[in-house]
């Protein structure tokens, strides 16, 4: 694995110095490994909130005797959407307010994702602003709940059954990964870059699934945890490289002659390695071979389960940002 600290590098430099970084020490394929803490919790992107409300046409007032030509009749008013969340706004502390914020954020994110899939092109370009900001807010909320277990328990009780189940999976996964992180002092430079378009990655995941029989959702969850879908480009302190964080020796055995830095090659190698390690018959065994930590295994499986339940969760995770845990607190490296 490697260091988790990159998100969508939309307006940030490709290389940034962080005063302190969080490294989680796990063991990767029998070797110590530093994993980048991909901020698997709540999206904390950094752009001022902008209005996302749909513009509505206000009908012109008319006198009782006045008629309005049919061609001039106003369009029916659209239901206004809430303003987009401000990534710097304080997270509510009260469980009831947290539950309302999470419920509204998830509902709006699903709607914005549907619009993106239907009217946009997830296979090209950057995600639309509503998806980025709402996914970021979702990540921020889950991250807050992961760090506050008692508040999280009280918040779950105020959510719908389905959203409570989703929240528990995400918060548990984030908490597991945070448990592997050890904030340290010092300076470190991290290279980040934008991820490949969401549907380009989806095509690679599904091709690897067809070739090796490993569920594409598992591959997506591994890449999400490892490098936030390829946004983190720095090697780990042990020398693991590329979007799937392979050690050179493991790559020589399973890379099939490909390029360790190439997204498609790395995904095929990961599927090849997981298949050789027991997948799909025993995903827990295979994932433990990939990274010797049961907390890691559980986190990957929880995220994969959410993607399987609703593909919109894949698009949400795609827009979660990269964090570094420092001795001075969390720092986000990518996002708006």
From TrEMBL:
UniProt-listed InterPro entries: Lysozyme-like_dom_sf, Transglycosylase_SLT_dom_1
Superkingdom: Bacteria
Pfam families: SLT
Composition bias type Low complexity, residue spans: 48-76
Domain Transglycosylase SLT per the UniProt entry, residue ranges: 205-292
Region (Disordered): 48-104
Stated name of the protein: Transglycosylase SLT domain-containing protein
